[in-house]
Design goal:
Number of strands: 6
CATH class: Alpha Beta
CATH architecture: 3-Layer(aba) Sandwich
CATH topology: Undecaprenyl pyrophosphate synthetase
Number of helices: 10
Order of helices and strands: EHHEHHHEHHEHHEEH
Distance between the termini: 23 Å
Strand content: 5-15%
Radius of gyration: 18 Å
């Protein structure tokens, strides 16, 4: 089976899954974190080089109730602290990165394990595990154009092309996305997510809410990807 080099997952449906079970949103977020651990392990076992996971948008941490946002920050803190202790980071040479505006919005306690993860794994090269936190693809593109404009102001001969644009993106160290998996039954894009990198990506939409998304369905998505010919517009 031909496997993708770079997979992006948008794990949607935590709150609706919880509501379906007459439980609070917090319950869905906790279940979603557990589901993510299983999928990450499956991707690692399959030797997927790059896995990117949508964590939250800016709106998720600024427009939801104070109680839910507080819970999310604590859940992120616990999750990243747990990830820090995993031996696979070293044994499997996994580089962890977190893209987005999280330094602006996350409290110090949540930021600390994130910074430690980034620093601890900065020189790892075999696998890349990336989280999009307080992320917006629009924000990413705007800051890239602003940085390029600054380069041109400082040097009128500074090149402006696809290569320089990519090098100014938060995702500059990531390869193009091959497959996007979105759960939750709402097949829409989220805040211009990685708009440059998904140009040639295959899309897999499922009605399954994220907490119920299993390694078996993950493998089903990979199987579907492997059976589809990539024509790149030819």
């Amino acid at each position: 089976m031909s496997l993708p080099n770079h997979i992006v997952i948008v794990p949607d449906g935590n709150r609706r899954w919880a509501k379906q079970k007459n439980r609070p949103a917090f319950f869905g977020h906790q279940a979603g974190a557990k589901a993510l651990e299983k999928i990450m392990q499956t991707a690692l076992d399959l030797e997927i080089p790059c896995l990117t996971v949508w964590g939250c948008s800016v709106a998720n941490v600024t427009e939801r109730s104070a109680a839910e946002v507080k819970f999310l920050f604590k859940l992120f803190e616990i999750y990243f602290k747990k990830l820090l202790k995993r031996k696979e980071l070293v044994n499997r040479d996994i580089r962890v990165n977190v893209l987005g505006r999280w330094p602006e919005f996350f409290p110090p306690g949540t930021q600390k394990p994130i910074r430690e993860l980034i620093q601890k794994t900065a020189k790892h090269k075999r696998h890349q595990l990336t989280f999009l936190m307080a992320y917006s693809g629009t924000d990413e593109m705007v800051q890239a154009f602003e940085a390029m404009a600054k380069d041109v102001r400082e040097d009128k001969n500074a090149p402006v092309n696809a290569f320089t644009l990519k090098n100014h993106l938060w995702s500059k160290d990531l390869p193009p996305v091959d497959l996007v998996i979105r759960t939750g039954g709402e097949p829409h894009w989220s805040a211009g997510m990685m708009m440059w990198d998904v140009a040639e990506a295959r899309l897999y939409f499922t009605k399954t809410y994220w907490p119920a998304f299993t390694p078996a369905e993950f493998k089903k998505a990979l199987s579907q990807y492997s059976k589809t010919e990539r024509r790149y517009g030819k």
